[in-house]
Model the fold of this input.
Amino acid sequence: MKPLRGVAKRIGQGYNLLSNAQKAGLTPKEIAKLVRYMAEYFSDKTFLRDFHARIEEAKQAAKGSPIGGWFTPFGQALLYALVRLFKPSVAVETGVAAGGSSRIILYVMQKNEKGRLFSIDLPEGDMKLYPKDIVNSRIGTYLPPGYSTGWLVPEWLKGRWKLYMGDARLLLPELLESIGEVDLFLHDSLHTSEQVRMELEVVFPRLRRGGLLMADDVNEDWTLAFVDFIQEQGLRPAVFAQRYGVALKR
Ligand SMILES: C[S@@+](CC[C@H](N)C(=O)[O-])C[C@H]1O[C@@H](n2cnc3c(N)ncnc32)[C@H](O)[C@@H]1O
Done:
């Protein structure tokens, strides 16, 4: 399969893309489409050029301090492909910072001609738990001077977006009350076991059958609460690239 060779070359051989996709419960047809969509992401030079240009500008503003927090190219392509494949009507994410994941979800929603994204972010929420130098050295600064939450999201993608500023512990249950069923949930806020579990516990009953759960930083360095929670529901979590947790509510 030609696109598969392209993706494998681009992301290296180490990610077990196909076996993880099987593990997450995707059908062979869905896996074939997932791979094709990942290849589509890597070949979208206009989108990627703008992504990198915004990051370069922010680096100048950061004056040498490291900036970061968004998904790796593999993670970006995986998120892109999953949203392209499952075409969510209602997506919710916690943890925006620069807005890398928001940018991708909103871009695909525009391609899908379908969907709304509700995001929640508490700026510097991580700093309340981890010393600033740990966050800055492990992840990088999210907001260089003069930059605000979601700076990676261009204006022309904001029509389908609602961004709420505050603690997901308070705002997520309220938001879910008001929007009803959810098709996609992405956790990328505070990676403590308590926070991950709390978010999944309130989202799971609202997640449509066939809906998708994702979490970033699913590993022993942060927390494996995503894996534990999904297994407790009798479902099969997959962790791509030792980082991106994915599960389908089938
Ligand atoms: C890793 S960054 C998100 C990266 C983003 N998904 C991306 O792809 O660019 C985590 C964000 O979650 C925020 N955060 C931390 N604790 C939070 C909480 N309790 N509620 C909401 N957001 C929180 C952090 O301040 C930070 O802005």
Observations:
- The mean pLDDT is 91.
- The radius of gyration is 17 Å.
- Residues 69-71, 94-101, 120-126, 142, 167-169, 188-190 surround S-adenosylmethionine (CB under 6 Å).
